[in-house]
């Protein structure tokens, strides 16, 4: 038996927590092939693919409106850094993918922020990265949301704002008069 002092140092593992929402989940069971509430290991050199094709994608969405490969996540280490990150790439020719407020067309990719919302069609996915040290693999931990993520997080809607008005959600103080204060007053 190896003594405590001689045992290898435990590495923490980067974990990507993903919370999924679709308005028709109860009736269509679009997430029935996802393994919720259990961490899964993914090798660092594998690309995590999400889509309809079970022969190609590790994470299957059971919906004919989803592309064979909807999007992929690549785990990587930044150049000249120990920082481990994810890159998200839209693999759908028909559906744009939105990461927070950045719209990705086919084959566009960006770094996945530490906490963001991924949207396509009626799908909403909250992605949160829990940092780790291991470069051999990462983990995914999937969750199911009962209510829309955009609604639950009270984020501004991604609805367009008419040109002749300003969204009051962006400026909560709209309609209030400014208060003038003398610089000598404390």
From TrEMBL:
Keywords: Cytoplasm, Immunity, Innate immunity. Residues 166-186 are annotated as: Disordered. GO terms for biological process: innate immune response; positive regulation of canonical NF-kappaB signal transduction. This is TRAF-interacting protein with FHA domain-containing protein A. It comes from the Eukaryota. The gene is Tifa. Its main location: cytoplasm. InterPro entries: FHA_dom (IPR000253), SMAD_FHA_dom_sf (IPR008984), TIFA (IPR033621). Residues 49-121 form the FHA domain. One of its GO terms (cellular component) is cytoplasm. It is found in: Cytoplasm. Belongs to the TIFA family. It holds the Pfam family FHA. The keyword RNA-binding does not apply. The keyword Zinc-finger does not apply. Residues 166-176 have a biased composition (Polar residues).
